[in-house]
Design goal:
Distance between the termini: 17 Å
CATH architecture: 4-Layer Sandwich
Structural class: alpha+beta
Number of strands: 15
Strand content: 15-25%
Strand order of the largest sheet: 6-5-4-8-7-3-13-14
CATH class: Alpha Beta
């Protein structure tokens, strides 16, 4: 069932942003899924590149695995896939050609979490993040400290820069300026080639709830392609890229991390669910807040005042209801409801005329 909200309808919802927060031409389009609540007491939801993760995670839940182990094992499939260029092995590097990974985990029953950022040479940052949660009194380790922590726990150093990712990085480096000693790339469609890699792969978020009603989540990424070394996105930031409250629900994100960090996005989604809104609407309301704040930075909006970037939220509440929303149309997400594992269209704020 699909629903669309007019500006007047959305104003009546009482989001509390005031009339100035209503964008001209804003589209509030609901997704195509139907929430029936629990049937078997288990749900797995993931970002659009997570269909294999949801399958793996549900298999583990059925076998009695802890929900955190289930979601981490699910995203490990993507972290280990060299063809996914913004997660783990094969991730696109920073401007120096170095792959730096970020990840966070959060476990509902203990309301504890762990994260790593700017981690080099370790393929599965999600598992290191779990160890930060379980084996330290810290919530976040970064850079060399995160690497040494991983090595102390038996992780092996690996070269994460695959030949394909290196070639993409090299093409980007060659096109930067005509005033250096790098020859320009031969390809006439370089931008399209790079964009196809960057936009068709993404950070992966995965959330789960088991038969007991316990929630857990994980978010993992290699971040922006050609980022400044040391840049940390939203994925390892608890409350931005991931947030779990066992009494309410869980939320995670993919997309422009800076916008999410500045608005505590995943925390906001969970708080809207605490107020009684469903997962999809909670995601939409958070996106609307972020879109409004983006207007304070003109470089982030187009001539119509709409955000220039994509940002996605995924949410799962304690009832087993799920939802997702994107800043722009065309996004989707994966859900395993215990019976069927399939993709669903995300709700959205703005309509991209280039998508159906």
């Amino acid at each position: 069932m699909k629903n669309s909200y007019s500006r007047r309808d959305f104003f009546k919802m009482g989001v509390g942003f005031g009339a100035g927060a209503l964008f001209s031409g804003m589209s509030l389009k609901a997704g195509g899924h139907k929430n029936d609540g629990f049937e078997n007491g288990m749900r797995i939801i993931a970002s659009g590149n997570g269909i294999r993760a949801t399958e793996k995670a549900m298999d583990l839940l059925r076998d009695g695995a802890d929900p955190l182990e289930a979601v981490i094992s699910g995203v490990n499939i993507v972290e280990n896939d060299p063809q996914d260029h913004s997660v783990g092995f094969g991730g696109l590097p920073n401007e120096l050609g170095v792959v730096e990974l970020d990840a966070s985990v959060m476990y509902g029953p203990t309301h504890n979490g762990g994260a790593v950022a700017s981690l080099q040479n370790i393929k599965n940052p999600s598992r290191v993040a779990r160890l930060v949660m379980e084996r330290t009194d810290h919530a976040l380790l970064v850079g060399e400290g995160a690497l040494q922590f991983a090595l102390a726990h038996g992780f092996k150093k690996e070269n994460l820069l695959t030949d394909e990712a290196r070639k993409i990085w090299l093409k980007k480096k060659e096109q930067l300026t005509d005033d250096d000693f790098w020859f320009p790339p031969k390809s006439d469609n370089l931008e399209d080639e790079i964009r196809s890699f960057v936009e068709t792969h993404g950070t992966i978020n995965c959330l789960a709830i088991n038969e007991k009603g316990d929630l857990a989540g994980v978010t993992t990424t290699s971040g922006f392609f050609f980022k400044i070394p040391g840049r940390v996105g939203d994925s390892p930031i608890i409350g931005a890229g991931l947030y779990v409250d066992n009494e309410v629900g869980a939320a995670g994100s993919t997309g422009r991390g800076e916008a999410n960090i500045l608005n505590c996005g995943s925390y906001s989604v969970v708080e809207f669910m605490r107020q009684g809104f469903g997962p999809e609407e909670a995601c939409l309301r958070t996106l609307k807040r972020i879109a409004e704040k983006s207007r304070l930075q003109p470089r982030l909006i187009d001539e119509e005042g709409k955000a220039r970037f994509q940002l996605n939220f995924y949410a799962l509440n304690r009832k087993g209801e799920f939802g997702a929303a994107a800043m722009w149309s065309g996004a989707n997400f994966a859900v395993h409801d215990g019976k069927v594992n399939k993709m669903h269209p995300s709700a959205y704020l703005f309509k991209d005329n280039n998508t159906k």
